[in-house]
Amino acid sequence: METLVAARSVDHRLTRHMAAWDSAWARRLLPPVEEAAEHTKLWWAAAAVMAAGGGLPGRRAAVTGIAAMAVAELVSNGVVKKLVERRRPPEEWIPHDDVEDRPDSSSFPSGHTAAAVAFTAAVAPTLPWAGAACAVAAALVAVERVHSGAHYPSDVAAGAAIGLSVAALTRSAPRLVVRRPG
């Protein structure tokens, strides 16, 4: 029980610290990142670029990334958020105006982060250059979710874990389906 209390305390301190982070680049960069990630627009655009310019590997990566993103959103937003009801960080912890735009759904886990990490991890083995670019964007999405007061760091970590798990499953699913019994 003490470990849980200590973890919650660290989570709360990190949330307050990250939300209070006031740098010029954060004010300039994070709001557009949040807008691009809303409704997975960023990942659909990345998939379109990969499919258009990456040949057959690009099309494969785009399809795998979109599939992983969709499953991660289903798991995080459609299942886990329904099972774990967690309030968003208190508004008084967030010293900027972004706090007014927070969703009403459960804070746990971060669906934006789950989608971002799933897409990135599914794409990276096929197109490492695209995976590297998407990893930067996914990290910015994760930071933005805490900075805006929408999530605690543990929500983002859980979203990332869901995203990684779904990406691994999505990448291995075709081999599991095609495999013939022995």
From TrEMBL:
Membrane topology classification: Multi-pass membrane protein
UniProt-annotated location(s): Cell membrane
Main location: membrane
Cell membrane listed as a keyword: yes
InterPro entries per the UniProt record, alphabetical: PAP2/HPO (IPR000326), PAP2/HPO_sf (IPR036938)
Keywords on record: Cell membrane, Hydrolase, Membrane, Transmembrane, Transmembrane helix
Domain Phosphatidic acid phosphatase type 2/haloperoxidase residue range list: 64-171
Domain of life, per lineage: Bacteria
Listed name of the protein: Phosphatase PAP2 family protein
